[in-house]
C-alpha cells in the first residue's frame, strides 16, 4: 500500500531521547541508563515510522543533557566525526548525523532546540531539517530534567526532525509523520498533512533574501563562499529573485536573548537536578563558571574581558532572575519575532538563505570555547520557524585560516583565536547553507533546499573513519 509505506524497508536511527519500546532512553544522563528505565512503549513518531514501513534499528550517541554541540557522555563515551576523527560530529544529535554520513543508515530522527539537528548535519555533510514546532508529536520523548518537567520548553520548544543523505529523504520522513495517524495519536498536533502542492515546483517566482554574516560571529572564508556561490547559482536560474537583506536584528541581540531565556532559572539548576548526582562534563565548565559567578563581580569581570564574553557574563544571573525580568525577556522575544515577520512581509520574501554555521566541524572538546559560534542555528529556534541545511562545498586549501584582519574589531577576541585554531588543517571538511522560512512553510523550505541540492550536486563523502583502528 503505497499510501502507507513512505519508509518501507528503510533502516532508521532514533535519537536517545525518543521513546523506542525495549530500549533505553537516556538523553546522555547516566541515571537514565538503569534497566528499570527502559521504554515500555514507542513514542508517537516511532509508531508512525513503523506504520510506514520504517525499521528503527539503532541509536546514535548524544551529549550529556543534550545541550552541547558535541556527542559525549559518561555512558557511551565520545563519538567522533567520520570526516576527521579528531573532530566532533556535533550535537546533540551527533551520533545520528555520523551514522547517516557513514551510510550506516539512510535516515535518522533527531531533535532540535538550538541547532541539535542542523549543527551535526552541517558538520557531517548531510541534510538536516528542523520543522515548525508542533507539527510533529513529541509525545513519548524524554526531557533531561527531573520527572521530564521543563517549563522553558513552552517558550523555545524542542522539535523532532530528520537527518538524511538527501532532501527527498527528509521529505519522505515528513510525509510519513505528517499523516492522518499523527493527528489521531496526539490531538495537540494541528491536523496539517504534508502538502504535496507546496512541495512541488511552482512557476511563481520565489524571492529569497540572504545574509553572509549575522554580525555576532563572522563566518570563515569557506562559509562565506558557500553562500555567495549558491546565491550566484540561484540568480542564474529562472524563477528566483535574490537580494541581500537588511538585518532586523543581529546576532548580538538574538544570541544573548537565547542565552538569557535558557539560563533564567540560574546556576544551571535544571541541568544539575536532572543529573541526579552525576557531575557535569568539563565541556560545560565555562557555562557553569559564568552561571555561578557572584553577581557583584559580574560588572568587574565583564569590564576586564572582551565584548562578546563580557556580554555573556552580564546575560546570566547567579540565583536566576525575577518573574518581572523574565516577562521583559518574553517581550523582547516578541519584538524579535515581530521584526523578522515584518521583514518577510514588507519585502515579500519566501525564504532567507544564510551560512548554516560560521565554522566547519570543531575539534573534539573545544565547543566549550566556541559557544558563541552557534548563533546561526539559534535564530530559527527563537523565531519558531522551520529551517533546513544542505551541504554545498568543502573547505579549500587556501581557506584554512581565520585572519583577524577579516573580522570586525569587536570580534578580535578569544572566540576568534579559537576559531583560527579550528580552521587549521580543515581542508576537505563539509560546509553547508541553511534555508529559513516562516512558520508552517515547511514544504516550501524543503523545496528550496532541494533546488539548491540539485544545483550544487554535492557528492563528497567522508573516508577518515575507514582508517580508524
Describe this structure in words.
The protein has 469 residues and is an alpha/beta fold. It has helices spanning 44-51, 94-101, 118-123, 167-177, 180-185, 196-199, 221-236, 251-262, 269-275, 285-292, 298-304, 307-315, 323-347, 375-383, 414-423, 442-456, and strands spanning 11-14, 55-58, 72-73, 77-78, 107-112, 127-130, 159-164, 206-210, 240-244, 351-355, 387-394, 430-436. Helix 8 (251-262) packs parallel to helix 12 and helix 8 (251-262) crosses helix 14 (375-383). The protein is globular and about 60 Å long. The termini are far apart.
Overview in brief:
The protein is α/β, with parallel strands linked by helices and about 475 residues long. The chain is about 35% helix and about 10% strand. The chain starts with 10 loop residues before the first strand and ends in a 13-residue tail after the last helix.
Note the main attributes of this structure.
469 residues, alpha/beta, 10-stranded mixed beta sheet, two-stranded antiparallel ribbon, 34% helix, globular
| Helical proportion, percent range | 25-40%
Largest sheet: 10 strands, mixed
Instruction: Tell me the quaternary state.
Output: single chain
Q: Please indicate the percent range of residues in DSSP E strands (runs of 2 or more).
A: 5-15%
**What's the overall average pLDDT, rounded?**
96
Uncertain stretches of 5 or more adjacent residues = none
Structural class: alpha/beta
Order of helices and strands: EHEEEHEHEEHHHEHEHHHHHHEHEHEH
Estimate the global geometry from the Cα principal axes. Answer: globular
The counted number of beta strands is: 12
Strand adjacency order, main sheet: 2-1-5-7-6-11-12-10-8-9
Distinct helical segment count: 16
As a whole number of angstroms, the C-alpha radius of gyration is: 21 Å
> How far apart lie the N and C ends?
44 Å
Amino acid at each position: 500500500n503505497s499510501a502507507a509505506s513512505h519508509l518501507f524497508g528503510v533502516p532508521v536511527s532514533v535519537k536517545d531521547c525518543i521513546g523506542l519500546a525495549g530500549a533505553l532512553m537516556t538523553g546522555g544522563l547516566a541515571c537514565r541508563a538503569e534497566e528499570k528505565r527502559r521504554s515500555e512503549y514507542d513514542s508517537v513518531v516511532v509508531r508512525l515510522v513503523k506504520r510506514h514501513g520504517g525499521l528503527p534499528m539503532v541509536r546514535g550517541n548524544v551529549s550529556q543533557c543534550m545541550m552541547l554541540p558535541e556527542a559525549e557522555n559518561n555512558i557511551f563515551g565520545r563519538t567522533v566525526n567520520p570526516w576527521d576523527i579528531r573532530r566532533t560530529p556535533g550535537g546533540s544529535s551527533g551520533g545520528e548525523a555520523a551514522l547517516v554520513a557513514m551510510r550506516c543508515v539512510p535516515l535518522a530522527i533527531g531533535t532540535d532546540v538550538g541547532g541539535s539537528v542542523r549543527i551535526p548535519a552541517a558538520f557531517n555533510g548531510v541534510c538536516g531539517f528542523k520543522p515548525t514546532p508542533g507539527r510533529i508529536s513529541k509525545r513519548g520523548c524524554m526531557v533531561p530534567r527531573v520527572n521530564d518537567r521543563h517549563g522553558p520548553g513552552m517558550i523555545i520548544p524542542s522539535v523532532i526532525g530528520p537527518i538524511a543523505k538527501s532532501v527527498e529523504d527528509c521529505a519522505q520522513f515528513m510525509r510519513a509523520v505528517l499523516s492522518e495517524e499523527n493527528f489521531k495519536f496526539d490531538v495537540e498536533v494541528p491536523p496539517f498533512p504534508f502538502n504535496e502542492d507546496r512541495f512541488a515546483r511552482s512557476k511563481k517566482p520565489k524571492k529569497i533574501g540572504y545574509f553572509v554574516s549575522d554580525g555576532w560571529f563572522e563566518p570563515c572564508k569557506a562559509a562565506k563562499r558557500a553562500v555567495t556561490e549558491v546565491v550566484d547559482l540561484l540568480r542564474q536560474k529562472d524563477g528566483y529573485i535574490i537580494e541581500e537583506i537588511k538585518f532586523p536584528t543581529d546576532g548580538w541581540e538574538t544570541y544573548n536573548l537565547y542565552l538569557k531565556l535558557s539560563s533564567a532559572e540560574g546556576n544551571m539548576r535544571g541541568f544539575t537536578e536532572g543529573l541526579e548526582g552525576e557531575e557535569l562534563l568539563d565541556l560545560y565548565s565555562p557555562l557553569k563558571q559564568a552561571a555561578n559567578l557572584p553577581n557583584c563581580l559580574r560588572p568587574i569581570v565583564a569590564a576586564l574581558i572582551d565584548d562578546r564574553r563580557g556580554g555573556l557574563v552580564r546575560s546570566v544571573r547567579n540565583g536566576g532572575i525575577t518573574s518581572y525580568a523574565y516577562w521583559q525577556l518574553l517581550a523582547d522575544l516578541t519584538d524579535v519575532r515581530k521584526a523578522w515577520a515584518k521583514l518577510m512581509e514588507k519585502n515579500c520574501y519566501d525564504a532567507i538563505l544564510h551560512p548554516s554555521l560560521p565554522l566547519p566541524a570543531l575539534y573534539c572538546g573545544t565547543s566549550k570555547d566556541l559557544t558563541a559560534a552557534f548563533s546561526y542555528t539559534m535564530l530559527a529556534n527563537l523565531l519558531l520557524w522551520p529551517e533546513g541545511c544542505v551541504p554545498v562545498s568543502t573547505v579549500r586549501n587556501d581557506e584554512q585560516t581565520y585572519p583577524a584582519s577579516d573580522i570586525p574589531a569587536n570580534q578580535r577576541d578569544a572566540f576568534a583565536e579559537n576559531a583560527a585554531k579550528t580552521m587549521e588543517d580543515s581542508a576537505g571538511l563539509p560546509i553547508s547553507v541553511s534555508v529559513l522560512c516562516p512558520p508552517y512553510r515547511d514544504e516550501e523550505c524543503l523545496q528550496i533546499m532541494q533546488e539548491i541540492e540539485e544545483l550544487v550536486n554535492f557528492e563528497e563523502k567522508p573516508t577518515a573513519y575507514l582508517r580508524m583502528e
